[in-house]
Design goal:
The chain has about 500 residues and is an alpha/beta fold. About 35% of the residues lie in helices and about 20% in strands. It has 18 helices and 20 strands. An eight-stranded parallel sheet has the order 7-6-5-4-3-2-1-8. It has a six-stranded mixed sheet with strand order 10-9-11-13-14-12, sandwiched between helices. The longest helix has 17 residues. It starts with 10 loop residues before the first strand and ends with a helix.
């Protein structure tokens, strides 16, 4: 039987599924880097407990999940319960029994030994979560497992509070909001975390948990940072910042944090003692109003993208402006440049402020003429018709999402608008290049992609938090690798 050395040193369990026993054993024995393996018998046409346990190299959890709790078992309930009882009798290290499965007599006969008593909710976090947990604890099962879908940071905080009690538990928030519970099981009082084949929403591979998040290096002393947004699962920031942390040998980890709103985010971040956050949509404006100390640039832009926890308050700043300007700085001065900004959202406002600060003559071009006028008035520029006239600009910046994957064959403007232009800067980084950039190159324009800005603003964030700056090539390579893996998935 495997037990964690301490609640701050949780184990890693790899989940494997298969259609046949031969395939299950092969996948079981192919697991590398985990401490134990969950063998899912419910997807196997003819499950064989003895065969599943034979010659195992790691401790195992035997699970045969009923369809009424998210599993694939299609036989009778009597057959399923017989398989699980056999697993206990034949020496499985752990056997997962559902709380609602009526296993009370079996648990009592075993005095709870080797039993993981589980409850799953794939729709949400039950309002009576605490009462359910208490009832499961009274069963005598050695480990109590709760896996519930968390939609808010408050859901995750409720789950975390359960882990402060006595007894072994495994507490998992399923879905994107629950990722911190998978990467930081020790902070949730969990005996182990699950990784593997994406059997449950939010589950990641063993390799990603070990390599991207450096799971084995996480302790109760590890500082926590992250990217906050909704949605946030697509963000390249964890790839870049965790690569930087590894390169600099820092005892910190960088996670995605999804929340309902900025206040929900702050409650979760403070509960987990988060030290710093990158902030993305839709929280950039909300966070500005909730921060105690703000750099002078942020109010002009109307948003912040970086937070740092100092004592009991948050300091905020905007690195998007400097990040946007960094690739342009390598191409000479902007003084007098005719710059057209496509779009009229928060990103367009930041870009317009940045360009004016370097002496560019800014035109804002958007389908919403009223929004374009607002930004143009703010920076002392002008609102232009949409789409921009050919030859009316030296620098064209796209701040709209048009052309983002998977709609890679779309462009915010017709190719005819690009004739006679100079430099096209598309803030989109997936795909790279975008259709706008391809069209621009075909007309003889120079191009800059959004990945250059993403890397530059991330490096500024890292330097503000840690006082050191990793190599730009490292961040760029990490982001490109993440994009490649996303496209290959």
């Amino acid at each position: 039987m495997l037990l964690p050395a301490s609640m701050t040193d949780p184990a890693l369990c790899a989940t494997v599924t298969a259609a046949t026993m031969e395939e299950l054993r092969a996948r079981r024995d192919a697991v590398k880097g985990a401490d134990l393996v969950e063998l899912r018998l419910d997807g196997i046409r003819t499950p064989d407990v003895a065969g599943a346990l034979k010659d195992r190299q790691l401790p195992v959890i035997v699970t045969c999940r009923a369809s009424w709790e998210g599993g694939q078992f299609r036989g009778s309930e009597e057959e399923r319960q017989r398989l699980l009882e056999q697993a206990l009798d034949q020496g499985a290290d752990w056997v997962d029994l559902e709380w609602q499965g009526g296993f009370g007599d079996l648990i009592a006969r075993r005095n709870g030994r080797n039993v993981v008593l589980s409850f799953h909710d794939f729709d949400g976090t039950p309002p009576d979560l605490e009462a359910r947990y208490d009832a499961m604890r009274t069963s005598g099962a050695e480990v109590v497992k709760l896996a519930v879908t968390t939609h808010t940071g408050d859901d995750l905080r409720r789950l975390r509070r359960l882990g402060s009690g006595e007894g072994l538990s495994v507490l998992i928030g399923m879905g994107q909001t629950g990722v911190p519970s998978r990467v930081l099981p020790g902070r949730f009082g969990s005996a182990w975390t699950y990784a593997g084949e994406g059997v449950a929403p939010g589950q990641m591979s063993v390799r990603r948990l070990l390599e991207r998040f450096r799971f084995r290096r996480i302790s109760d002393r590890t500082a926590v940072y992250g990217v906050a947004g909704s949605p946030v699962g697509h963000s390249l920031s964890p790839a870049m910042h965790n690569a930087g942390l590894a390169d600099q040998g820092l005892d910190a980890v960088y996670l995605p944090f999804q929340a309902a709103d900025a206040k929900d985010l702050f409650r979760l971040a403070e509960d987990l003692s988060v030290r710093g956050l990158s902030v993305t949509a839709p929280f950039k404006e909300e966070v500005l109003a909730l921060s105690a100390e703000i750099d002078p640039l942020a109010p002009q832009v109307g948003a912040v993208n970086t937070l740092r926890r100092v004592g009991d308050h948050w300091e905020a700043r905007n690195t998007d402006v400097a990040g946007f300007l960094a690739p342009l700085a390598r191409r000479g001065a902007l003084e007098g440049t005719r710059a057209t900004v496509l779009g009229a959202g928060g990103a367009a406002r930041g870009v317009a402020v940045a360009l004016v600060s370097r002496g560019a003559r800014v035109s804002v071009c958007a389908r919403r003429a009223d929004r374009a006028r607002e930004i143009a008035t703010l920076v002392g520029g002008e609102a232009a018709g949409f789409p921009p006239e050919p030859g009316s600009w030296d620098l064209l910046v796209n701040t709209t999402p048009i052309g983002t994957a998977p709609k890679i064959d779309e462009s915010p403007v017709p190719a005819s608008c690009l004739v006679g232009g100079g430099l096209v800067y598309d803030l989109i980084y997936n795909p790279d290049p975008t259709k706008l950039m391809r069209d621009a190159a075909a007309t003889g324009c120079e191009t800059i992609g959004g990945l250059d800005m993403l890397v530059a603003q991330a490096l500024d964030q890292f330097a503000w938090w840690f006082g050191v700056r990793p190599p730009a090539d490292l961040f760029h390579a990490a982001a490109k690798q993440e994009l490649f893996e996303e496209m290959s998935a």
